[in-house]
Amino acid sequence: MVIVFAIILAALVLFATEAVPVDVTAIGIMIALLVVEPVSTMLVEWGVLESAVYVLRAPGSEVTAVERGLSGFASVATITVLAMFILSAGVRRTGVIQILGRKVGAFTGEDETRQLGATVGIVSPISGFINNTAAVAILLPMVTDLAEKGKTSPSKLLLPLSYASMFGGTLTLIGTSTNILASDLSARLGRDLGIPELHAFSMFEFTHLGVIMMAVGLVYLMTIGRQLVPARIKPAEDLTSEYDMAEYLTEVVVRDDSPVVGQRVGEALEGTDFDVDVVQLIREDAVFLEPLGQKVIQAGDVFALRTDRDTLVELMDVDGFDLLGDVAVTDTELEAPEEGHNLVEVVVAPGSFLVGETLASANFRQRYDTTVLALRRGGAVIRDRMDRTRLRVGDTLLVQGATDSIDRLNNNRNFIVAQEVDRPDYRESKIPVAIGIVAAVVGLAALTPINIAVAALAGALGMVLTGCLKPAEMYDAVEWDVIFLLAGVIPLGIALEVTGGAALLADGIVAVAPSLPPIVVLGLMYVVTALLTNIISNNASVVLMIPVAVEAAVALGANPFSFVLSVTFAASTAFMTPIGYQTNLFVYGPGGYEFMDYVKAGAPLQAIFAVVTTLGIALFWGL
Hints:
- The protein has 623 residues and is of the alpha+beta class.
- It contains 27 helices and ten strands.
- Strands 3-2-4-1-5 form a five-stranded antiparallel beta sheet. Strands 8-7-9-6-10 form a five-stranded antiparallel beta sheet.
- The longest helix has 26 residues, at 595-620.
- The two termini are 30 Å apart.
- It is found in: Membrane.
- It is a multi-pass membrane protein.
- This is TrkA-C domain protein.
- GO terms for molecular function: monoatomic cation transmembrane transporter activity.
């Protein structure tokens, strides 16, 4: 038990600090648990220990520690989540959400109330049937465009988008990976502990409570929340103004006597120690974008540069440039889609290879033939020496590039392009097929004995066989960091139960509140889980808290299924920090938010949900 608690403590620190990616932490947990028994057995043979240490199975059990430790990879939850990523991608590739976005934009106009109502009213129900993380990734460009065209601050819409997706995730079993994992844990504990009340969730097990929570949440966002969510980004400004680029974008002309005439751009500018990026090369009537490294510089060439004033002065002295007077480089020069020029925001997605890298180490400019003009992390904008900044999930890059380069970024799951990009490869003819497959998966899981994992895998296969997805796209659709996170943390719940750690924690909770009625303890379970989820991964908090909740319910003589539901709902609704839920990170950069914005807008909502969830569970499932 001591060893398991030590592993949990180390895991909590790593999850909270993200010193390494959460999926790497999860695999580390799994390996640590797997080596305890064989290492302790060797120490017994050497006379160091009196007996071996068992954390994943009871001594003498027919099930091996390796089988238990690797069971996360074969878990129904892991397989179901994997299949749901593929189903969501099949829907996304049809472009149906983008079509919906265009219709919404025509309806809302410049009315902020309509924009907010449409944003939260669309994402919530959609999130009940495709993974809510995927729903936000799909809808984020639509919402930012809605704000731009309606002259509304995107900050007023993006945080509600994230929150509303969490409401929708509570509608069905497949709304979020947390629900699927909790269902699998509930069924396993029911079998292992012989508790008949504990079972896997049905498709619409808690839909009635989810509808109530969604309604309460939407009312909050349209009233109190609307006042608490700040307008961090001013509306109706172009991107260069939004990022305060006036002092960092300029145009220079190459003098006849410049020493760089005849040199390649990469050697003369991009290969130097100067903090400068060449955004465009203008030669007579032609405008050239990346790749520019091999272009030979000629006298009279005009360069649009991203640099600071001090560096610019040095460049003019050393390289023989003259500043073009009365020239402001704005969106007008950088954003001309009809000429193949695009200026967009690109969000670093969870699981992106860029996380932990710098723009220089990732070779971003050369890899994608684009220029990064600025980097926004929450409310802070970085414009100097961006190539040295280690990137995080949710960082937003202001990128300028040619149309085909932006299309490549848009098609890459490492990024979310935060503006709508016209994509000719949408398979609109497959819209009825993709929606029909998702409906069939839901129907099979809800109305027949077919397990949700089997139905979801069949649906994923159907997406490929019907042409909604290409085979290669199926693998690209899966967020493998989430899969490894699930596979890694599931054994931790097993170890917590096997060693008695869950029972010990539950006894502590019951001992602290011996005179409190079960409904108050149920509410405390929600609060503890919600606070934990706002610090670490939602899936990790479910794995840790469900065994504890079950043991606490048994000690109180209460309904353990109600306690499982309390933990499940709390882990699916983390409103108070940008790191509490992936969707919060998605909007962190594009919304320009500060950490305290989540606390101010999310804490009252978290408190309201604690009361509504607790009373709803007590009403519908009893104590």
